Amino acid sequence: MEPLQSLDVKVTVALIGGFVVALGWFANAARDRRAERRRRIEKVRDVQTAIAAEIVPYLEALELFDLNQHLADMVDIMRGDGEYIPMVPTERNDTVFRAILPNIHILPEGVIRPVVRYYSQLFAIEAIIEDLRSDAFAAMGADRRETIYSDYISLKIQALNLGQQAVDAIRIELGA
Length: 176
Known about the structure:
Elements: H1 2-63, H2 67-80, H3 95-100, H4 109-132, H5 135-139, H6 142-175
Helix pairs in contact: 1-6, 2-6, 4-6
């Protein structure tokens, strides 16, 4: 009977050891999930903060000017001199966005939409700037150049509104 008791003890010890190992696996898995969740939350916060840091200076730059008054002044100049072609600088205000674009899905849905709408507007501005700097634009009649320049300023006004919506969405999410 001695070998049978010895076997019971060995089985009991093995079961207890197996239970302890399994408990360790579950504890480690839970700890790893919590750590991964913290890393993800931190990454989402960092990305939102970086996007806001990119958007805000452009909005501040746009707010330095009364864009409607600028447009009225430029239209007056263009109408006064049919040969006048405004100088339009190239803009790049999307470095952070382009860098995070492959991971845009990590952002909360309430942030993705306004951020993408804002940057889509910036891409439209970049495209119209290329047109405004082209030889084809210079060759157009004064009325057509005025219309396109007005569209350009309208895009900037809309970018100001969309940028503020994007920053507001990020602030709300970060505040939550």
